[in-house]
Description:
- Strands 12, 15, 18, 19, 20, 21 and 22 form a seven-stranded mixed sheet that branches.
- The N and C termini lie far apart (about 70 Å).
- Helices cover about 25% and strands about 25% of the residues.
- The protein contains nine helices and 22 strands.
Amino acid sequence: MGIQQFRLPDVGEGLVEAEIVSWKVKPGDTVKLNDTVVEIETAKSLVELPVPFAGVVSELLVPEGETVPVGTPIISVQTESAEASPEDLVPTIPEPEETGGRTAVLVGYGPKTTEAKRRQRKPSTPAAEVLAPPVPVSAPVPEPVVAPVAGGNGSVHVLAKPPVRKLAKDLGVDLAVVTATGPGGVITRADVEGYVAAPAVADVPAYEPAPVVSGREDTRVPVKGVQKVMAQAMVASAFTAPHVTEWITVDVSATMELVERLKSDKAFKDLRVSPLLIVAKAVTLAARRTPIVNAAWDEQAQEIVYKGAVNLGIAAATPRGLIVPNIKGADSLTLPDLCKALNDLVATAREGKTQPADQAGGSFTITNVGVFGVDAGTPIINPGEAAILAFGAVRKQPWVVDDEIVPRWITTLALSFDHRLIDGEKGSTFLADVAGILEDPARALMF
């Protein structure tokens, strides 16, 4: 008999930490190999983890709601095998150079690390106490990377972890000019984001404390998981890609009639048909004429990458934040297959079960703001893409037809695009094509 510890694994997306959402077992439970024992929230989705050995649960090492780094022991299991040392609990991992610069891991195991330090929870204390440095712990933590950054007097050594260095690069921030607030002079994500958001010194108004309202207290909610990644991605996109947005208002009465006919079609039995389906189809068709909207800007290689397929992202608001799962090869699907894919995407997102792989590799995004009763907006482009289409509310409005005012179904489309690779002509052509298909679905035969 022996005790083995299961360490929090990297589930395949290069993630550095995760939150323990819910335990599926308790001490004393018997588990078999690959039984699901815990649900975690990574920066992208909820993931259920299987245990890599069989035995009896002896201890849950991390409570629900706590966020810990990859490699942290999270559960102890008493097994039939002899007791293993901490070094034996994780398989040997190839060096980064053997795996193209990324540490290879197996699902169910974490990378081999030294004892990890758990992230301290934010105490609910006054601001002065919140700013106090955390109490040091005896367990060592991975050392931050010392990045040489050119300064005014030569090379300056800056302490920053790789994710922070990447964030700074994406935002165009010189780490040498960022004030470090982390332990030992380490530059944190908050330091970089604060530097970007900070106004010029001359623009800072004199501080005036807000009046205190009796009986009311501030509530602090940690930014983590999906919401944290969404915020970082939007900041990176907004400060990297020069956004341009165009609008068009269109009569979609013919599309609404088509939706009603499809609802009674045998090919769409048991499927939910909505105007979003026709918008999605119109996007894939219009992208054939203007393929640059389905491209991406590669800053490092200084190249424009035309995507081989339209991996159509649909922005989905979930209880844990905004995610953008995508339908792989949407341009090759028939209308019934596209409808089924949309139904499955929405259902999975609502359940909070969208996996990281379903959110990776998108090439164009639709955000359906109309479901909230909103007419239009200026959406921010999803990182790694060139454009995003906002689909507004469909309303009956007075419209001029043959010099007469009649009630028609009207909507507004707004296209934001990256002006580095999409000029006004290309953006306008694509938007007009999408609008033309929605106004007259038979026009799709031209594409």
